[in-house]
Design goal:
It is a single chain. With about 160 residues, the chain is an all-alpha fold. It has one domain. Helix content is about 65%, strand content about 0%. The chain is elongated and about 65 Å long. The two termini are about 15 Å apart.
């Protein structure tokens, strides 16, 4: 059923060997993550305060420029990974299952790491609500696991006699 050799194939080419649904979901997910990366990198004030629900900190010196710079750098690192994903979608589709593992690792770490980090923060002081990346991480980890498994199931042959 599952062909684990698909994750790191012997031949790296532009052929996706899993279920088509996993391929098209990967494209959709990469679109969403690319959008997220641009928001974090270029629209950090909207991403940090309006989407992630953090409260603007004040002080002397003003900590906001430093916080914005770090948020922007995080967006840049996300965008670099998305660029690798787009390159694989365009030219190296056989590596998409391996990229699913990396995405799954990111979102699974969020499931376990965020509660530890947020437990040390007073919610009322730093944020008004749980950030979407923490709130939806368990759901996305499960969805990514499902599509990872679909990406390593070879489709049934449509040729007669096979």
């Amino acid at each position: 059923m599952f062909d684990w050799k698909i994750i790191l194939p012997e031949v790296i080419d532009n052929k996706f060997r899993g279920q088509k649904a996993a391929y098209y979901f990967f494209i959709s997910f990469t679109c969403l993550m690319t959008w997220r990366s641009f928001v974090h990198m270029f629209f950090f004030e909207h991403g940090l305060y309006e989407i992630a629900n953090y409260i603007r900190l004040e002080g002397d010196p003003d900590p906001s420029p430093l916080i914005h710079m770090l948020f922007s750098i995080w967006g840049m690192s996300q965008l670099i990974f998305c660029t690798v994903c787009w390159a694989c979608i365009a030219k190296i589709r056989s590596l998409i299952p391996a990229l699913y593992i990396l995405w799954l690792a990111e979102w699974t770490v969020r499931v376990f790491y965020y509660p530890l980090v947020f437990a040390t923060l007073s919610e009322d002081v730093y944020r008004t609500a749980i950030p979407p990346g923490a709130l939806y991480a368990p759901f996305l980890a499960v969805v990514l696991m499902i599509f990872l498994l679909l990406s390593i199931i070879k489709p049934k042959s449509t040729k007669r006699g096979e």
